[in-house]
Each structure stands twice: as C-alpha cells, then as structure tokens.
Design goal:
Length: 261
C-alpha cells in the first residue's frame, strides 16, 4: 500500500493520462463501427454506405461531449463526474440515475471490450476457443489487480498496450488508404453472417438502432473529467488538453475505419 503522504508524487502527465483514461474509449472504437454496420447489413449489404454518414453523426456527438466535459473539468477541478455535476445542478435523484447508468455502462464496457479482445485472440489461435470464458475472466482479474496498485503505476503499465494499439491502428489506416488509392483494397462482396437477402427493410428505426450501436465508440469520454485530481499541476489544463487529444484521436479513427470498411 502507498502512504497518504506519497499521494502528491503519484500524479501523472498528459501522455500517461491519455493511456490511463482513454483505454476505455480506444477499445470501444475498435468494435463500434462493426456493430453499426452489422445492423445496417440486416437490410442488405447495399445499405452499408449509410455507415459513413452515421459515423459523422457520431463524431458530432463526440465533439459535443468532448467540449462539454472540457468545460466540466475547469468548473470542477477537483473531479467532476456525472454524479457530482448532476447533483449540484439537478438534484439527488437525477444524480443517482446518472451514477447508476455509469456503473451499468462500465460493467458492460468491460464485458464487451474483454470479450471482443478474446474473440480476436481466439480467431488467431482457434485452439483456445474452449477457453474463451476462462481467458476473459482471467483478463478482467489481471486488469483489476493492475488498477489496485495506483494510477501512476497502472498508467505506466497500460501505456504500453494503449500506444501499441494506437500505432497498429495508425499503420492499418495508412496502409488501407494507400491500397484504396492504388485500387488494391480488398472488397468482400457477401460478408459472412449477413446473408444475400435483406432480413428487414431499411427504416428510420433501423438507422437509429445502427447509430445507437455505433455510439458505443464514445464510451469512456467522461473518464478524464472523473480523474482530474490524478493529473499533475496545472491539473485542469493538463486534463483538458488530454481530453481534446482523446476526442481528436477517437473521431479520426472512427471516420477512417468506417470509410475503409
């Protein structure tokens, strides 16, 4: 355990802060576009072109959230999560609803993110298929143990896979655009699991459902405003800058992945 007197020395900078507080959002953007396109594909693969306008709509939502939380950071430099802000401005009941929603959101995010990661691992190593549940639970326990050590130590640990992920995503996107420009980008004419025949017509409800699925990509944007006190001085400025960085990266990845898909 760390002594309370050592707490001031456990603050983090912007680079480590991005790894600590954006890993949630970064993992979400890896599967958000896919979930959005799976819904559109139920109306026929010819409707997948609608994914890009929906992605731009999600980026608009992401921009609103980013600037809203950036203002929250400066208004609540001691840490302003959804519960605190809602309690101060709307009352106790709305604050409890916001807190309960975030608790549910975090549980689902961990479940989906870990399951998605294990699914990718199993796709590379099919022999691990029967161990999917064990792997998922084990990874959740490992993440829990790392977080228990403290923000600074866990930040350094999480910085490696987070920035490794960002570098790989950047390489993938760049190579994808190079192949697109050269006309060598592969095209899947009949994706597995979607079927050649539409399962339902394209409707407003279907578009809204696809949009809702795609907004899983913005999960975790609020994390930085919750952890302002973890940043080194000037806390609010460093946290706000990190939040802007995260918003730009998420928006760019979301549009690029959707466009190339």
């Amino acid at each position: 355990p760390l002594a309370t007197a050592d707490a001031p020395h456990q603050t983090i900078g912007k680079l480590i802060g991005l790894a600590v507080f954006s890993s949630d959002a970064m993992s979400s953007v890896a599967y958000g576009p896919q979930e959005m396109m799976l819904i559109l594909a139920t109306a026929g693969t010819q409707n997948l072109h609608l994914a890009l306008p929906l992605a731009f709509g999600i980026v608009v939502l992401l921009t609103i959230l980013t600037f809203s939380y950036e203002q929250t950071i400066h208004a609540y430099p001691g840490g302003g999560g959804a519960y605190i802000v809602a309690r101060d401005n709307l009352g106790e009941i709305p604050a409890q609803v916001a807190g309960a929603a975030l608790l549910t959101d975090y549980i689902l995010t961990v479940a989906v993110s870990i399951s998605s990661g294990v699914a990718q691992l199993v796709s590379a190593f099919p022999a691990l298929d029967s161990y999917r549940v064990v792997l998922a639970v084990g990874l959740i326990m490992m993440v829990m143990l790392i977080n228990l050590r403290g923000v600074k130590e866990s930040g350094i640990t999480f910085a490696i896979p987070t920035y490794f992920f960002l570098v790989l995503m950047l390489i993938t996107v760049i190579l994808g655009f190079i192949q697109y420009i050269n006309g060598t980008l592969g095209v899947i004419t009949n994706p597995v699991g979607t079927g050649a025949n539409p399962l339902q017509p394209i409707t407003l409800f279907l578009l809204l459902r696809a949009f809702a699925n795609g907004t899983s990509s913005v999960t975790g944007v609020e994390a930085i405003s919750n952890g302002v006190t973890a940043f080194s001085e000037p806390r609010a400025k460093n946290a706000g800058t990190t939040l802007i960085w995260m918003g730009v990266i998420l928006g760019s990845l979301l549009i690029s992945i959707t466009y190339l898909s």
